[in-house]
Design goal:
This protein has 740 residues and is an alpha/beta fold. The mean pLDDT is 93.
C-alpha cells in the first residue's frame, strides 16, 4: 500500500507501508528487476514509523519541481514486441495501427513539451483518449496503465498519402499504396518519430542514381532499414554484440560489414566495406514492411543541405518538391526533431558517429558536481551541452552549424534542454571553441555579452581529450597524455592543428608533439581536393621540377584546372603567409590521392574513409620504412613529407591497398612512439585517444594495442563521438574546471 509519483526531474518517489521484510524485498526487486527501458542510478531509502495511512497502492498526479533537475529524461523508445504483436493481431484495436504504443515504448524526447512527462505536456494532448483507451489507462493490471503515449485507431493520429503536388491520395490503405509506389521505383518521403526520411528500394541502381541526383549527394553512403535480423544477415555480417545493439530499445544505425549480395546495390555505400543498418523502431515502419517484400529500404534524412531535419508537413512539401515523388505523412506534431543515431563497434565498445535518437537526452555523469555550464560545441557534426549538478546533457545531433537556420536549431535545442532541466537562471560559465570564425563561437560570444556570464574558449584538441577524461570520471587535477587526430582545429599559434600530442588536465594543456606542418595553399580547397594537399606536402622536401617529374600527369589530370593549377599550388605553397597545418586528416587525404581513390571530396571525411576501406584489402606485405621523429623547439614532430615521397617512389611496384595500409600504419607507429616517450618522461600512465580520425577502426585498434602493450591505460570515447560531436562535453568540463 502507498503511492508512486513522477517528480519534475523525471525521477520517481515511492512511498510504501507494510512489513519491513516485505518492503526490503520490494526494494531489492526494484533494483534488480526494473523495466528494460528504465535506469536505476540511485536509490535513496528512508524508513519511518508505521502510520497505516494507505488503503491501496496508487499513482499520484505528477509533481513539478522548482529546483534545477538532475534526473533522467526519457529518450525515444523503439516499439516493443508486445505492441508489434498487437499490430499483427486481427480484431485488436491496434491491428495495422501505426501509432501503437504502451508504457514501455514510443516517442518521448521527440514528443514532450515539458516535464514531468504527462499526456497534457506532450504531442498526445491533441488526441483525447477514447473510452476504450481510458479504461486501459486506468487499469493497474493493463500494460497501458498510466501510459501517456497510448492511443488507438479510434482516437489517435492518422497517416495520409500525398502526391508531389501535395494532393491527398484517396486510398483505404496508405501503407499498401506507399509500398506499391516504392516497388515501382518512386521516392517516398515518410514522416516518422523525429523527422522525415526519404525511402526507396535498396536494390535498384536506377532509382538510387535518381535519389543521389535529386539529393545532390553523389557518393555519401545511405542508411538502410531492414525488417528483421534474418533479412539483415542476407547482405551483412552480424556478431552477437551488433545483434544486441540493433535489437535494443534504442534502435540505432549500426555499421556492418557488407556481404557480396544482389539484395542491395553497390551504389548505397560506394567504395566502402561497411553499411549502416537499422531495424524498424516505430509502428509506421512495421506497417510499411508488412506490405513490401524486400530485405531493405534506403531510409535517409530528407533535410536539404545546411538545413535541420524537416518535421512539418508544409515544410516537407516546400523543401522536398522535386525530390520526393510522394509523401506519407501523419498529423501528429513532432515537438523536437531528432536524427537517427549512428555507431560502429570497435574493441567491443560503441564508437558513435552520431549520438541522437534513443540516446538523447540521457545524461553523462561528470566528475565536477558543482556549478552549471553551457557549451556550444564545434562547427561540424555538432551537438551542444548543458551541465548541471554533476551531469552533462548533450543535445541531439545538430549537423553542421554553418547557416542561420542551423544556428537557430542549436539555440532551440539548448533552450529545450534548459526547459527540461528547469533551468531559469544563467549558467555559471559558457564554453565554446577557440576558433573565432565558427558560428557556435560567435553565438557563445553573444550569449556571454547579453548575460554577463564568463566565456571560456577551449582549444579544439584539448576539448577532444577532456571529453575522454570526463567520460572516464578522471579527477579535477589528473594529468593525461592525449593523442588528438582529426581534420582541423584552430591552434594556439594560429595554425590549423589536427595531429597532436598534448599533456593535459581539465584546467590546462601543453602541446608536446605534433605531425609535421604542411602548407595548405588555398586553405579549405586542400580539404576538398586531396591532390592539392599531396603536392603541397612535397614542397617541404623537393623543388618544383622534382615535384613535376614525380607527380607527372597523375596529379595534373586530377586537379580541376590541370597544369595551370599545379603551378599556382607550387608558387603559393612556398609563400610564408600560406596557412600551415599539422592535420592527420589532410595527411590521410594525401595518401587517398596518391592511391587514386579520391580526387574530390563530396562529403566530410570521404578520402580517409575510402582509404580505410582500401587498406583492409591489403595483404599486409612487408614494406621497409622507418618512423622519422625530430625534436623541434622542444616539441616532438612526426615527419610526413618524406614518407609521402617514399610512397610515391614505391607506387610503380606496390599495390595501392598496400600503400594505403602503410600510410595508416606510419601514422599509428609515429604517434605511439611520441606519446609513450612523453608519458614515460612525465610519469603519466593514462593515454587518451580522441578526434574524428579515431572513427577509423584500424587506427584506434592498433594504437590501443601498441600503447597497452607498453603498459599504459588507454582510454577513448564510448559515450560521445570521437569527432566534433563530442567536443561540447569537453568544453563543458574545461569551463567548469576553470571557474569552480
Amino acid at each position: 500500500k502507498g503511492y508512486v509519483i513522477n517528480l519534475g526531474d523525471a525521477g520517481v518517489e515511492i512511498v510504501v507501508e507494510g512489513f519491513e521484510s516485505k518492503i526490503t524485498s520490494f526494494i531489492e526487486i526494484l533494483k534488480k528487476e526494473s523495466p528494460v527501458v528504465s535506469e536505476v542510478k540511485n536509490v535513496k531509502i528512508v524508513f519511518k514509523p508505521f502510520k497505516d495511512r494507505f488503503k491501496e497502492f496508487t499513482i499520484e498526479k505528477s509533481r513539478n519541481k522548482d529546483t534545477v533537475a538532475s534526473g533522467i529524461f526519457p529518450p525515444d523508445i523503439g516499439i516493443c514486441e508486445e505492441c508489434a504483436k498487437d499490430m499483427e493481431r486481427e480484431g485488436s484495436r491496434w491491428f495495422n495501427y501505426a501509432f501503437t504504443a504502451c508504457a514501455s515504448c514510443g516517442p518521448r524526447f521527440t514528443g514532450i513539451y515539458q516535464l514531468p512527462y504527462d499526456r497534457e505536456r506532450s504531442h498526445m494532448k491533441d488526441f483525447p483518449l477514447c473510452e476504450h483507451c481510458k479504461r486501459e489507462y486506468r487499469d493497474p493490471m493493463d500494460r497501458r496503465f498510466d501510459a501517456q503515449g497510448i492511443t488507438c485507431s479510434i482516437c489517435g493520429p492518422q497517416m495520409s498519402l500525398y502526391d508531389a503536388q501535395g494532393v491527398k491520395t484517396q486510398t483505404d490503405d496508405v501503407f499498401s499504396a506507399a509500398a506499391n509506389l516504392l516497388n515501382l521505383g518512386y521516392i517516398v518521403a515518410i514522416k516518422g518519430i523525429g523527422g522525415i526520411h526519404l525511402a526507396t528500394l535498396a536494390d535498384d541502381d536506377e532509382v538510387i542514381r535518381k535519389l543521389r541526383t535529386r539529393k545532390k549527394r553523389p557518393s555519401q553512403p545511405f542508411a538502410l532499414m531492414s525488417p528483421n535480423l534474418e533479412e539483415v544477415r542476407k547482405f551483412a555480417y552480424l556478431n552477437r554484440l551488433e545483434e544486441k545493439i540493433l535489437t535494443s530499445w534504442r534502435r540505432p544505425i549500426v555499421l556492418l560489414r557488407k556481404k557480396r549480395s544482389s539484395l542491395i546495390s553497390d551504389l548505397i555505400a560506394p567504395g566502402l566495406d561497411k553499411i549502416g543498418v537499422m531495424l524498424p523502431y516505430s509502428g509506421i515502419h512495421l506497417a510499411l514492411f508488412k506490405r513490401i517484400k524486400t530485405s531493405a529500404l534506403i531510409m535517409t534524412s530528407a533535410n536539404p543541405p545546411g538545413l535541420p531535419m524537416i518535421i512539418r508537413n508544409d515544410y516537407a512539401f516546400k523543401y522536398l518538391h522535386g525530390v520526393a515523388d510522394y509523401f506519407l505523412l501523419h498529423n501528429r506534431v513532432i515537438v523536437n526533431r531528432c536524427d537517427d543515431s549512428v555507431l560502429n563497434i570497435i574493441l567491443n565498445k560503441p564508437s558513435f558517429l552520431r549520438r541522437s535518437r534513443g540516446f538523447v537526452p540521457d545524461p553523462i555523469d561528470i566528475p565536477i558536481k558543482k556549478g552549471s555550464a553551457l557549451a556550444l560545441g564545434a562547427e561540424l557534426r555538432n551537438s551542444a551541452a548543458v551541465a548541471a549538478n554533476g551531469r552533462c546533457y548533450l543535445t541531439q545531433y545538430l549537423g553542421d552549424i554553418t547557416t542561420l537556420e542551423s544556428r537557430e536549431f542549436e539555440t532551440e535545442a539548448i533552450n529545450y534542454l534548459k526547459n527540461l532541466l528547469n533551468i531559469t537562471c544563467n549558467p555559471d560559465v559558457i564554453g565554446c571553441d577557440l576558433h573565432p570564425g565558427y558560428m557556435t563561437s560567435q553565438l557563445a560570444e553573444e550569449i556571454s555579452q547579453e548575460t554577463g556570464v564568463k566565456l571560456i574558449k577551449s582549444q579544439h584538441h584539448h576539448a577532444h581529450i577532456s571529453s575522454v577524461s570526463c567520460e572516464n570520471m578522471l579527477g579535477l587535477d589528473e594529468e593525461v597524455i592525449g593523442i588528438a587526430l582529426d581534420g582541423a582545429g584552430y591552434g594556439s599559434d594560429g595554425a590549423i592543428w589536427g595531429g597532436e600530442v598534448i599533456k593535459s588536465s581539465y584546467k590546462f594543456f601543453k602541446r608536446v608533439g605534433h605531425l609535421e606542418y604542411l602548407p595548405m595553399p588555398g586553405g579549405d580547397l586542400c580539404a576538398y581536393y586531396p591532390s592539392r594537399m599531396l603536392v603541397s606536402a612535397l614542397t617541404n622536401i623537393l623543388d618544383d621540377d622534382e615535384i613535376r617529374d614525380i607527380t607527372g600527369n597523375h596529379v595534373k589530370l586530377n586537379l580541376p584546372y590541370g597544369e595551370k593549377e599545379l603551378e599556382v599550388i607550387l608558387k603559393q605553397a612556398r609563400k610564408t603567409e600560406t596557412i600551415k597545418t599539422s592535420s592527420a586528416g589532410r595527411f590521410l587525404d594525401s595518401i587517398a590521392a596518391l592511391t587514386e581513390i579520391c580526387y574530390k571530396r563530396t562529403y566530410e571525411g570521404e578520402p580517409a574513409i575510402l582509404l580505410e576501406a582500401l587498406a583492409k584489402k591489403s595483404s599486409k606485405e612487408e614494406l621497409s620504412f622507418e618512423v622519422e621523429i625530430e625534436k623541434i623547439n622542444g616539441l616532438y614532430v612526426l615527419k610526413s613529407s618524406k614518407f609521402l615521397h617514399d610512397l610515391i617512389k614505391m607506387k610503380n611496384n606496390t599495390k595501392n591497398q598496400v600503400l594505403a595500409y602503410y600510410g595508416q600504419k606510419y601514422l599509428v607507429n609515429g604517434f605511439a612512439e611520441i606519446a609513450s616517450t612523453i608519458a614515460f618522461e612525465e610519469g603519466i600512465d593514462k593515454i587518451c585517444l580522441s578526434g574524428g580520425v579515431f572513427a577509423n577502426e584500424y587506427i584506434l585498434k592498433e594504437l590501443w594495442r601498441l600503447l597497452s602493450a607498453r603498459g599504459f591505460k588507454v582510454l577513448f570515447n564510448t559515450m560521445v563521438p570521437p569527432g566534433d560531436g563530442g567536443t561540447a562535453l569537453g568544453q563543458a568540463i574545461i569551463s567548469l574546471a576553470n571557474v569552480i
